Amino acid sequence: MKKSNFVLAETFYKFREKRKWLVNMILSIVLELIIVWIFTLTSSKLSIISDVKASSLFAATTFI
């Protein structure tokens, strides 16, 4: 395989070498989508928590 600018080119090439490359490729795409979904859920919760901390810190500083 020659070099490619495509990020996952080597991964897809390895999948094609195997007998069940399509199944492996679909499984890896689904796994990546699940990871991205979990990351977005946790990052949105973290931003909500940091907003609450920032607002409570602001309330504490204005109270003093």
Explain this structure to me?
Keywords: Membrane, Transmembrane, Transmembrane helix. The chain crosses the membrane at residues 21-40. This is ABC transporter permease. With 64 residues, the chain is mainly α. Helices cover 81% and strands 0% of the residues. The chain has one domain (9-63). It has helices at 9-17, 21-63. The termini are far apart.
Shape: elongated
Instruction: Give the total of domains.
Output: 1
* Proportion of strand residues: under 5%
What does the largest sheet look like? none
- The helix fraction, in percent, is over 70%
Quick recap:
The chain crosses the membrane at residues 21-40. This protein is mostly helical and 64 residues long.
Layout of SSEs?
Layout: H1 9-17, H2 21-63
Helix pairs in contact: 1-2
Keywords: Membrane, Transmembrane, Transmembrane helix
Transmembrane segments: 21-40
Protein name: ABC transporter permease
Offer a few descriptive terms.
64 residues, mainly alpha, 2 helices, 81% helix
